[in-house]
Specification:
The protein is an alpha+beta fold. The chain is built from seven helices and nine strands, in the order βαααββαβαββαβαββ. The two termini are 30 Å apart.
Length: 271
């Protein structure tokens, strides 16, 4: 099968520190290994934890907001009979990665052999202040309870009580992020990965699952041009497909009706 388009980043030279990833076509699992190597390298460098928490460099921002969510997606899709090859690009183009699928399952199941991936972030207001407070003070409450004192310039974080509308607020945040992306033009067979940064320290299963279900019920083909929309939790420990045209809704304990192994079991599955 023909490889992805050769050459470096479309929008310019590689992002400094990410030369082993930027513009390179890699087997999906090799990409994941290199992604985790870069994260470890940054973390072990002088002031590396600050760089990752506060996203003080272009490489840290790309790793946290694009490369690690893409690695999570690749690990969820890569399996027997379905291999992924990805080329992440740090430049300026109407997508963040190119993907090529290989294996007996690809043609048999009608998976597009080539596609693109766009990666975006649904982030709560003041989430950056919560990260700053965490780094400077050793701990932080939610983003909703974190502000900056205008007189001192220091961050202040206080406990916040969430109402019963909290789930709805989070769903609307994610929906607005998807809707904004859906207004732009993308190549055919583009998947959208949404990195969700809700601004709280822990998302429990009883929060994650109803939010995923609400998104599955809300997204409609007439409002969404993407081949699929995938939600990735902030620490990349959970992933769920919340939109896929023509797919059925399944639960994490159900067997999916969709035979497409690229879809992590189908819409609504929690991984």
């Amino acid at each position: 099968m023909e490889r992805l388009t050769r050459g470096g980043p479309i929008g310019g030279p590689p992002v400094p520190g990410l030369e082993d990833l930027d513009g390179q076509e890699l087997d999906g699992l090799v990409f994941c290994g290199k992604a985790y190597d870069v994260f470890d390298e940054i973390r072990a460098s002088p002031d590396g934890i600050r760089e990752l928490r506060l996203l003080t460099s272009d490489r840290a921002k790309k790793v946290i907001e694009e490369i690690l969510p893409l690695a999570t997606y690749v690990q969820a899709r890569y399996r027997v009979g379905v291999r992924l090859y990805v080329r992440w690009r740090g430049g300026n183009q109407p997508f963040d990665a190119e993907v090529r699928w290989e294996g007996d399952g690809v043609k048999h199941l009608g998976i597009p052999e080539r596609g693109h991936i766009e990666i975006t972030t649904a982030v709560a207001a003041n989430e950056h202040l919560a990260r700053e407070h965490l780094h400077n003070e050793g701990g932080s409450f939610s983003a909703a309870g974190t502000t900056r004192d205008r007189k001192t310039g220091r961050t202040v974080s206080v406990p916040t009580v969430f109402s019963n509308s909290w789930h709805g607020d989070l769903v609307r945040l994610i929906e607005a992020t998807i809707a904004k992306k859906a207004q732009k033009s993308y190549p055919a067979n583009t998947s959208l990965i949404v990195l969700w940064r809700p601004g709280v320290s822990v998302i429990l299963d009883e929060d994650w699952e109803p939010i995923v279900a609400a998104l599955v019920a809300a997204l409609r083909p007439t409002e969404c041009q993407f081949r699929e929309v995938v939600l990735v939790e902030e620490n990349c420990s959970r992933l769920a497909t919340v939109y896929q045209p023509g797919a059925c809704i399944v639960h994490d304990t159900d067997q999916p009706d969709s035979a497409d192994p690229s879809q992590s079991g189908g819409v609504g599955e929690v991984t």
